[in-house]
Amino acid sequence: MGRSPCCDGEAGVKKGPWTPEEDKLLVDYIQEKGHGSWRRLPKLAGLNRCGKSCRLRWTNYLRPDIKRGRFTEDEEKLIIHLHSLLGNKWSSIATKLPGRTDNEIKNYWNTHLRKKLLGMGIDPVTHRPRTDLSLLAGLPGLLAAAGNFGGAGSATGAWDMHALRLQADAAKFQLLQGLVRALTTAAVPALAPGMDNLMAHLAASNGGQNGAGGVDQSMLLQQCQWDGMNNLPALTNSAPASGMHNISGMFDSFGAGDGLSSTELGCHGGASGSNVTVDAVAPPRPMVANDRDCNNNGGGGVSCEQTPASSPFDGLESLNLMDDLNTDGSWKDLLE
DNA sequence: AACCGAAGCAACCGCCCACGA
DNA sequence: ATCGTGGGCGGTTGCTTCGGT
To answer: Which cellular compartments is it found in (predicted)?
Structure first.
């Protein structure tokens, strides 16, 4: 089954770190004669290495067009963007970053970017806002602020919700959604009063269009599909008019159903900056066949076989996410 | 100064596929 | 059709470095 490893049976072949002398032998040989057959190269070059090791050393480290040094911010953004499109296709990603190898990009992803995204509340696999409890760790300020709604003398809330709506771009808003879902599903009792107040305020500021008891079911269903959230309580028109069950729907209504214009949300078409380049808040993302959470297709919604030519969620991939990230991984100005 | 754990990264591993003999 | 070879690929390992105590 399959071919045997190239170095099997090659007794005495050296492994481990390459010495400068070995590097020089390899470089000198390739520059003079080309690599030719990698299997025969070690012997011809006077190296006690297997051919595969030589090839990897050359392609990942010794090649003259390799760019060493730290990744630039632009490179980081490009990697994140390409990863959202291609997944772990490191070689494909590497073709878009001249001088960088797939191995280098892969290592950088695993050691830096992955953690960075996690710190931002973004799932590094799906590139969607995380909905698990770990969100709680990064947003203490949000929780404190949520509590302000229930504070003395804050009947209208500590924030101007309209100002919040103007400032919140879609990604941040979805992060907020994720947090609320985490809270609702985790049922953190101590935080419930503050979040209830927050939700009530959102509903009030929403002009009652989809407010208490009027959650748009179809929208919520779609939201559940793209979010992979199959544990959200089913909502009906007879559902309780208030309480944690309506939180998710209220957020959806707040973001997508209240008539906010692209301008209001700071959205624009393709310009630079930290705003979203999709029209208004990104609508629910239809499932695609290769989504890992593709099994969350309850309720007769979009099927997994449907693969849209372009996903409205794709706009989020062009976010200048790093611009909005504090050194501790929290969002800048999330709720100012 | 010594120790220790975490982080970073080069290198390796094992599987796969394409291609030519 | 089969086999050997080259080489691409993603995942993993283990060594080195760094920072904290």
So the answer is: Nucleus
**A54 and A153 co-located in one domain:** no
Going from the C-alpha of A317 to that of each of A131, A171, A240, A248, A320, the distances in angstroms are 18, 10, 36, 23, 8
Is pTM, for the whole model, over 0.70?
no
Residue A114 located in a structural domain: yes
With 0-12 / 13-18 / 19 or more C-beta atoms within 10 angstroms meaning exposed / middle / buried, residue A260 is middle
Same domain, A294 and A262: yes
Q: Is there contact between A37 and strand C, defined as CB under 7 Å from any strand atom?
A: yes
Same domain, A141 and A261: yes
Do residue A35 and residue A77 come from a single domain?
no
Looking at the fold, whether A174 and A314 belong to one and the same domain comes out as yes
Asked if strand B comes closer than 7 Å to A17 Cβ, the answer is yes
Q: Which of residues 17-36 of A touch strand C (CB under 7 A)?
A: 17, 35
**A98 CB neighbours strand B below 7 A:** no
How far apart CA A239 and CA A241 sit, in angstroms, is 6
Strand B close to A55 by CB, under 7 A: no
Tokens at residue A276, please?
A: 């979203």
